[in-house]
Amino acid sequence: MTELSLDTRSGLPEALRVLLAEYPRDGWAAHPQFQGLVSFWLERHMMFRQLMEHMTRETEGFLDGNRDPRGFAQGIGRYGGLFVNQLHGHHQIEDHHYFPILRDREARITRGFDLLDSDHHALDGILARFVEQANGAIRGVSGPDPKTGAGALRDGLAGLERLIDRHLTDEEDLIVPVILRDGPGGLG
């Protein structure tokens, strides 16, 4: 499955987009099954994207001299911890509750759930690297070269943002159509 690994793929293969063709993104919000679980789940995904954008702005502000070191360190600690803890919890619920139920509902996309599970394992290591970079940036603000750690964090956030967005987008494209078609029964 290396051609579909998180760091190299540009989207889901057509074989896994079968339900997306029947339930395209532009019609999701108007679908009767959208309110409730689907909208909540997509809001969680939006929160992860917004947290990464916020941390990137904070880091760039610090590097540009527009953010004080202490405020930068506190913000990265607070928002970085929230991001990592919430994302790990989100993945746990998906791996142990959502994915097994949804896998049984649509055999044509079973391989997609394997792909998402692989993403979660890959993201564990990527998130561990992010934590190291965030901690390095936080420690660095009181050191002799406070911008080196923040620069590494900015670069790491850029890569993390790309991978998280790829994963979340593919997850949405795979899962939302199943819930729209079948309803949230057993998932909520």
Describe this protein with a few key phrases.
mainly alpha, about 190 residues
Task: Walk me through what this model shows.
By secondary structure, the chain is an all-alpha fold. It has one domain (2-182). The chain contains 5 helices and no strands. The protein has helices at 18-22, 34-63, 69-105, 110-140, 146-182. Helix 3 packs antiparallel against helix 4 (110-140). The longest helix has 37 residues, at 69-105. The protein starts with 17 loop residues before the first helix and ends in a 6-residue tail after the last helix. The model has no long low-confidence stretch (mean pLDDT 93).
Write the layout of secondary structure elements.
Elements: H1 18-22, H2 34-63, H3 69-105, H4 110-140, H5 146-182
Helix pairs in contact: 2-3, 2-5, 3-4, 4-5
Helix content: over 70%
N- to C-terminal separation?
A: 31 Å
* Major sheet details: none
**Classification by helices and strands:** mainly alpha
Oligomer: single chain
Number of helices: 5
Number of domains: 1
Order of helices and strands: HHHHH
Low-confidence stretches: none
Strand proportion, as a percent range, falls in under 5%
The mean pLDDT is 93
Overall spatial form: elongated
What's the gyration radius in Å?
Answer: 18 Å
Number of strands: 0
Short overview:
This protein has about 190 residues and is mostly helical. It contains five helices and no strands.
